[in-house]
Amino acid sequence: MSDDCGCSSTQNFDGSSPAYKRILIIIIAINFGMFVVELLGGLSSGSMALLADSLDFLGDSATYTISLIVIGMPIATRAKAGLFKGLSLFIIAAWVLGSTIYRVFVEGVPEALTMGAIGFAALAANVISVILLLKYKDGDSNVRSVWLCSRNDAVGNIAVILAASGIAATDTAWPDLAVAGVMASLFIHSATKIVRQSWSELEAEKIHPSTTTSKN
Q1: Rounded Cα distance, 193 and 137, in Å
Q2: pLDDT for res 210
């Protein structure tokens, strides 16, 4: 199938299709809306996992906007955008880990009902994003980073729901702390994959410079 339909299954697809751009705009709106919801829910319930996930939604909103902006630009520019997004995930992971350590000493127990309810809402939002992006999961580092972030976010939401169940059963903060640690690991894993692919694209561009840019 042609790239114009956004259905390319190769790593050459750079997102230059009207359908992909429309989906990206929808996903940006979904992620920013869920950032606000989870931030308020995390603050009201005292859940570190919800606060970590809200920050992830905010980061996704920003990085997806960058993805949208650089579509159609030279591969070096797109690869640098992917590299930036990968590095930003490392920063988010560090924040989550630092906050988790702080929570251990504060010893606050999150409110499980709010955690679980918002966790389900976040999961629904990310499942919608994953379904919309499914046929665009392969592509350059810029396109692939969007897919990886959405997929891992859905996994993280399931973990938040499990943490809420664990908190309700044990009345301790440890399930929340464990999930925050798992989410940080997911961020690091995705960041590593994105950075590696971006770096490979930059190196390949040095060896075989592109003579044209993609058409929008």
Answers
A1: 14
A2: 60
